[in-house]
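Lecture 7, part B: from sequences to assemblies.

Below are the input chains for today's worked example.
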Amino acid sequence: MNDALSAANAPKQASGAGLRQSMAWLHTWCGLWFSWLLYAVFLTGTLAVFEDPISHWMTPEHHAEEAALEAASAAAVTGTAGADRGQRLARAVAYMAQHHATQDMWEIWPADANGGGELRAYWFDAERRYVMARLDPATGAPLPDAAPAGPVRGTHGGHHFVDFHYTLHAGTAGLWIVAIAAMAALVALVSGVISHRRIFRDFFTFRPHRGARSWLDAHNAVAVLSLPFQLMIAYTGIVFTATLFLPAGVMTHYGTDAGARVRHAAALSSPVPHARTGRAMAVPDLEPFAARAGQLMGQPVRAVVIDHPGDAGMRIGVYGWNDAPGLERRMSATSGMVAFSPEGEVLHVRQPGGAGDGAASFTSQVMGNLHMAGFGGVSMKWLYFLCGLAGTAMMGTGAVLFMVKRRAARTDGFGAWTPRMHRVIEALNVAAIAGLPIACVAYLWANRLLPLSIGQRADWEQGMFFAGWALALLHAFVRPPSRAWRDQLATLAALCLLLPLANALTTGDHLLAELARGDLESVGVEATCMVLGLLAGIAALRVRPRAAVPARAASGRRAAATLDSPGGAS
Amino acid sequence: MTGLLPAVLACALAYAGMAALCFAMGRHFEQATGRRSVPPRLRRALRVAGAVLLGASLQVSLDGWGAGVGWVAWLGFLTVGALLTTGLWAAWPRLAAGAAAVCAASGLLALIPWLR
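Predicted structure of the full complex, as structure tokens:
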């Protein structure tokens, strides 16, 4: 960034150093304008790693239910309950034939991985919605939906963070914005590496209390040391929805009409072509298919899917249950699958996590799984969380560094507009780096404080997230920068550290009780929140009022004093 | 809780390896010892030790998660090990070097039954 600064202001040079200089220029400006958005995407994406624990924490009314389900599934003796799988399948087929005979796809989930549990049937209704009925395993009669024992806490849970980090809650438009930002992230990463002159000599270097130098060291350290992760996460993030951004391939092979995407998705998910023939044929007894498939793929049967039921062109697909130890070691999270003709001929076998559906399908599975940490278990989730925080800190330190440099050097980057632009950038830095985490924790607070009875409760919670962020933005423009930093970091620290108290006062649950019943997901959410709150508190204490020190001489010390703010806030 | 032991082990070895590479660099050697330059033999020994420890970390990772996931996990452990090294070295270089020695010794000891 030393180079970045000079390149941003110096006239173009046509020498050998030109490449590095132009890359530094690119890195500075591409990085600056996208850093706030990317910071938000990275922070919420990092929280999205723990979507399930956050959802768990946000639905305390379901804790007993979840524990009971787990206990029931653990209690079921492996293998013994499997004897009645044939009867369960037959009952579900009878139900579907009686009530939903005309649907083109029947999907039956006969039992859980141990052969017990619920019997369920799925199909697409008239509006192409995927719907489900729970059936009584002993009779096949549909079961009424169990009424919740208490009031339901309407919430989007951790999914709010997942959704925000790739669509900003703005649908396809948001998807495009985030994808462009991800491209900018790749540009910034590559240009940053090229313009970094001493990437190996400074590999482990961090010099605290040295002003802009410290910020540059911190920015370099978190970025260079987590570079494989940052490249991977930005790249796989784009690849995830690449057919939307790069539609030429799909258009060439599947056409440009409305059905093209559906046909493309169908071809990716089922490699065996099938079509109705018009000749009637009864749905055969499914148990022999399930038993054969179980042997071929080496997994217990999760689902039996019948395409075109009642037609001679029928396809019977049997899918397996993934087990946790298997998922940990596989790059792709697909289960085993065997496809049959109605006569019982094996048409296709896909081993669990295998490339049996072809290279394109396997590649897309692995890319998606790489992005979502679908493998490796809990330790991998924590690695992703830490690397995600490093990426967030990379964005935060970069944005702060831009201003620290300009304050120290009194650089004039925007002509007559410089003071105003610097004020705007400073305020956006505060609102993005300290304000967004405030919004995130405000979302958790809203989950505990909003009354259970209000309508659209889940959207209210989300509204609190945006309201918190908007307030932070307003505050950042109203208060002088150093005050704004201190106020917001202190607010963040208080909200994070007091969250367990809010939980105890509203639900009566607390860390010790969670520990005692082995509810590690809730412990993890509250403990992590408190650790981040502690870091934000330390950062808040280190921010000093800027007016108290003479601007130029103390700029180094001051910058060092605010050193922890983005790291702490992230 | 599957994978917790290999994760801790791989992480400790990655930290020890990164710290050895860090120790072999003039600037960081001076931070920890006060001496200005690394003796050439020590430098070579530290670099070899660093490579061996990172290799051991890779071995634990591949063993714990298989050939595909193991490589991905290893890159994550390298990042965590290097960030730990950078952070600890900046604050308490001597303590960081001591911790690395402990991690290296206990990590390699734990590796003996691990490999059988």
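Note for the exam: The interface with chain B takes residues 201, 203-208, 221-222, 225-226, 228-229, 324-325, 328-331, 370, 375-380, 382-384, 386-387, 390 of chain A (CB under 8 Å). Keep this in mind when comparing with the next example.
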